[in-house]
Amino acid sequence: MRDHTVSVDRSTSPSALTFAPNFNVAVSFIDRHLEEGRGDKTVVRSVAGGEVTYAELAENVNRAGNALKGLGIGAGERTLMMVKDCPEFYYLFWGAIKAGVVPVPINTLLRAKDYRFMIEDSGCAAVVYSPEFAAEVEAALEAASRKPAHSFRTEGGDGALQARMAAASAALEPAPAKAEDDCFWLYSSGTTGTPKGAVHAHRDMVVASEHYGARVLGVTEDDVCFSAAKLFFAYGLGNGMTFPLWVGASAVLLPGPPTPDSVFAAIESHRPTIFFGVPTLYAAQLKTLESDDHDLGSLRACVSAGEALPADIFRRWQAKTGTAILDGIGSTEALHIFISNTLGDINPGTSGRIVPGYEARVLDETGAEAPAGESGRLMIRGESTAKYYWNNPEKTAEIMVEGWLDTGDTYIRDEEGYYHYCGRNDDMMKVGGIWCSPFEIEAKLIEHPKVLEAAVVGRADDDDLVKPEAFVVLNDPADAGDATAEALSQHCKAGLAKYKYPRWFKFVEELPKTATGKIQRYKLR
Ligand code: 3UK
Predict the structure, then answer these.
(1) Dist. CA 306 → ligand 1 center (Å)
(2) Which CATH code for domain 432-524?
């Protein structure tokens, strides 16, 4: 087999994948398209304006890779990316991989404190960021005890990525690699709330793009993918980049925040065929559709993940738009969706059935497989799962057990093989599809001078979607009331990522606790 190629046999389900012994995945996703004659085809359409062809993409990937190499960033060193959804995300991510550097896309909604942790934990050689995130990223760089040798913006003057790319060579040989070698990381904050770098191999994006993208969604060259979920999430990375690149399709990129209006406008002007959202956004879009009409006629499928899609939202969306929403569960560690509804097999209110190429087990408390209809801990296995957590052998041993991944979710598999989501095994919650740690919000509340103690739990809103609710013990009970609730809400909004502030406050005299003083959040839910 030629270097850097993967053979795909679709005569079986799942597809059989065979990787060349020397396999740098950037060649399959980027350079292959020039050989296959797609050089002049548009690969990226940015809502901010501008289109990129496959030939331009390949050249810019080489330039970005050379820019990193030119700085002396060596094989296996990390480059953190706080980059909005724009062509430079593609250039930097693939340029790094092609040059043997490990890109680490980071959630751009976070704050300096979170970035500081990731900078120190990763021991990165470089941090590259969009100007929009400069205040939080630069504050983190300032505070970090272990600083990267290089930090620069994607755009805006000398020293920015764009300028460095312009000065770099347009030719780059792929760094040697094996399909199982470390390729990129994604930070996940499931389970404990402390971010953990999940280390993914070169083959992982191929596996997820083939098993779920090409086979379940049937993404082809003719599709135009649009993900409201950003590229820095594993979900968005697949939807808005690797799925289209795997089959030679194209992607629409929205650099700003995905609001119902910005998303509808992008769909109407760029006419994607597949749309990827999260339940909270679908609920907000449905509200907008009550008063405004929008043309969603280009869509052949909609996808939802990140948290469970309530059956009611599925039904209202289908009634209003004529298009089904396929709910599927994925994770950062698995890279993408491993249990899903499909266009030919939809069971609203469930996560669907296992994606061919993955295996699932539901385990009871004793570790034995639970019978159909009974709930247990969901474990999954597949070829796209992360190899280990960076710097965290304890969590690796706890969550990645003999090739199986402990999802931290409770599920029921029914007689027909549909998986029903029953909640998390820990106190973590998903808000708008994004991790939210009760501990972090509690710590922020306790900083406020009026607060003695706080406990945060998830509570379902009118759309059946979970948002944080705070139970607060005040130093002076006489302060209880709307004014204090508003002050605490502002305090949280100022110090935490925006989506994390409590939507409801309850002032209580004390919190339920165990004998050892641990808050019993389940009693508050
Ligand atoms: C929860 C769901 C019910 C569940 C993700 C698609 O969400 C993704 O990754 P994360 O690491 O979180 C994983 C956890 O989120 N979850 C995700 N989807 C669903 N719960 N129904 C769903 N459909 O707790 C899971 O363990 O942020 C989603 C593709 C790639 C991803 N990384």
Answers:
(1) 4
(2) 3.30.300.30
